[in-house]
DNA-binding transcriptional regulator, PucR family (Actinoalloteichus caeruleus DSM 43889), 401 residues
Amino acid sequence: MRTADDPGHSASGMSGKTMRSLEYASGELATASVTAMERKLPWFRRLPADQRASVLLITQIGVSGFLEWLRSPDAALRLSTEAFRAAPRDLSRWMSLRQTVELVRTAIDTFEKRLPEFAGNAEEKAVLTDAILRFGREIAFSAATSYAAAAEARGAWDARLEALIVDGIVRGDAEESLLSRASALGWDQPVAATVLVGNPPSTDPQEVLYEVRSRAARLGRPALLGVQGSRLVVVLGGTIDEADADAVLPRISEAFGEGPVVAGPTTDSLAEAHRSADDALSGLRAVVAWPSAPRPVRSIELLPERALAGDPEAERQLVEQVMLPLVDSSGGLLDTVEAYLEVGGVLESCARALFVHPNTVRYRLRRISEVTGYNPADPRDSLVLQVALKVGRLAQARGLW
């Protein structure tokens, strides 16, 4: 009996005649495998012709690799698996890992049925059956490894792209480039967006990603995030009205680390999210002046602190939302709120200063609340009104209204 070192035998113990028969039949085996795929796998039949041709080519490579493996299993295994590692990178663009495994299983089943007919004896038949099972296992592992590597590479690329989008929102990049990058990540257009800023919960990017993604997923909302130095910026998709604010924003703020969390206004689309980011970041810089601020706090609730910190947008909003409505109203509302705040919110003192009945002051205070949305009798609202009046006077002196 000849050994594996005999030139007429392969390292696996196959005779030269059997190896030549397998080589002659390699194309037929590959074609038979693809035919079986078309018969058993409906989704495979729906693939375009060029993609089915790619599968046939890969199967032929597999057959050739198997023959090389029979000749020298230790040396050829690396070459065969490397060839298959390259193939799924192309396949993964239009085929899932589950589908690739189905193709491998179908091809292996075909080989198992056809290979024994090429064996010269029972011993070779056993060798072929064992070899194809082992080779199929290695190929399946290689495919899984390739898909995992491709997914990891896509994940790293997506993370970089996401960071670019968030950075672009903060900088106020051009709408076209921003939307193009967002579309590559699958962000639906148009969709409302709200920017939240605060401290990251960890220095581990994966932990930060999990904290934000898990909470956004439970709320059924898309989210983009980026860690910029010592701050975490989250762009939350979907409209947030007054009814949603108490449920949505606190849940997302749990993903941030200790310290204040500021939410900007909700914009109609991602292209306008830079306005939300500007207000949120302005609020984050100013929130230190309000130690008891709620968490999260809306940027509009920080208008007085932002104005005192020199934010022109906050000054504009105070003038438009408070000062101008009071100036345009009738009934002495502006004089009343100035007098009321000047006497420290004492109703009778305000009435004496204005030479009116206290009930008149009460009526005017209700009208002030209706016109501005701020109640002069509320401590926090009274601060907003005081700052708004001062900012409004300064803007008037500069000729801005």
Q: What stands out?
A: The chain has 17 helices and five strands. The chain has three domains: 16-152, 188-308, 312-397.
